[in-house]
Amino acid sequence: MKRSHILLFGANAFGTGLLAPVLSLVLLSHGATLENLSLCIGIFAVMVVVLELPSGIMADLIGRKRIFLLSACFMMANYVLLMFSSHFLMLAAACAMQGIGRAFSSGSIEALEIETYLREQEGRNLEKINSTMAVIDSVGLALGSITGGVLGFLDGSYSLLLILALAIQALILFLAACFVKEPARERSPLSPALQFKEQLRGLYHSLRNSLSVITIVLMSAAYGLLLCTVEVYWQPTLKTFLPEQLGWIFGVVTCLGYLGVTIGSKAAEAAMQSKKAVLTPEKSWRTYWILRFLLVLSVAALGFTHRVWLFLALFVLVYIVLGAGNLIENTVFHEDVGNDQRASMMSVLSLSLRAGGLAASVLGSLIVSGLSLSYVWLLFPLFSALTIGGIMIFHYRAGMRCHTAEAGC
């Protein structure tokens, strides 16, 4: 991976992590109220969900680089609007710009990097580029979160934070424009509307005819539910038994999670490249299912521990298992997806993950208000385990039907 591309991916992750620890506070200080705060975040979420798939299709049709450059422009508009916002309408526009920017950036530049790697390596060692990108992403998010938390503490107006975020986005735009190269695309005789329709038809056909891809798309929703459970409820759960003098530990816990993803990704990469442990497709899937069920157990255990040291250990374990499983998943996924649909399929995957997270947010709110927080940690892992088990049974039964049909031909 080129150094300029490492810097680009790192800066992109850093920029994403920068506002993560203080986003609600930034919105409240620039025109939002407690009453409409959730509406602002909802505008962002709706824009991402609505544009996730269309933006991926556009990236496949007109180029990944163009879409990513557009995403950088929308993110810069978001930060400018945030800096000068003093009332809800301008803030709503900023959140809409942020949602569009996130949707357009999802999968576009990653798809191009993977295609470049596959072309240079002739399709070998796909797990290496996936692991490298996961590590860069985790380190960038961790450093961004720490920096954002510190700047937010030092400057209550969040002006320094927003100026830095805008500068980082300008750097991303410069790096992408100058150092990212994309092969020229053949001009299609079809109109843009017909191209879009054909791409949708091709996506549907690919999903119907690729068991691996449809399995991974379904699994994204299942572990998206688990991931949202951890991300939303770990702080209030830890707070119930955390000594008051250890209130500073929340930022450290977040960084430990990102470190866990890095460890998991590198461990899985080492195992996949080991000469002693040759991972056949069957072994890869077996390992994948074990890691996903281990993720369920880790999340369930995390919610019911009442010791700080054990909570930290389980929190790291959750993200180690997540990182290892994601590497196997991404490797299988990109081996089965064609270049002409890569960005679109990555958007489908992201949309499925967000759907799982959205379901967790809605159901979690109902469970907490009707029962208690502990039931979230009991019911969500249980539901996820049943869902993952159902998907696994579907995967193997569908695979057996395919083998039987092939043998009969």
Descriptive report:
- With 409 residues, this protein is mainly alpha-helical.
- The protein contains 15 helices and no strands.
- The chain has helices at 3-18, 23-29, 37-62, 64-84, 88-105, 108-121, 126-154, 159-179, 192-209, 211-239, 249-273, 281-304, 308-336, 342-370, 373-408.
- The longest helix has 36 residues, at 373-408.
Topology:
Elements: H1 3-18, H2 23-29, H3 37-62, H4 64-84, H5 88-105, H6 108-121, H7 126-154, H8 159-179, H9 192-209, H10 211-239, H11 249-273, H12 281-304, H13 308-336, H14 342-370, H15 373-408
Helix pairs in contact: 1-7, 1-8, 3-4, 3-5, 3-9, 3-14, 4-5, 4-6, 4-8, 6-7, 7-11, 7-13, 10-12, 10-13, 10-14, 10-15, 11-13, 12-13, 12-15, 14-15
Keyword list:
15 helices; globular; mainly alpha; 84% helix; 409 residues
| Beta-strand share of residues | under 5%
Oligomer: single chain
Mean pLDDT: 84
| Rg on CA atoms, Å | 21 Å
SS element count, helices: 15
Please state the overall shape, judged from the principal axes of the Cα atoms.
Answer: globular
Give the helix proportion (percent range). Answer: over 70%
Strand runs, count: 0
Distance between the termini: 44 Å
Q: Pick out the low-confidence regions.
A: none
Structural class call reads mainly alpha
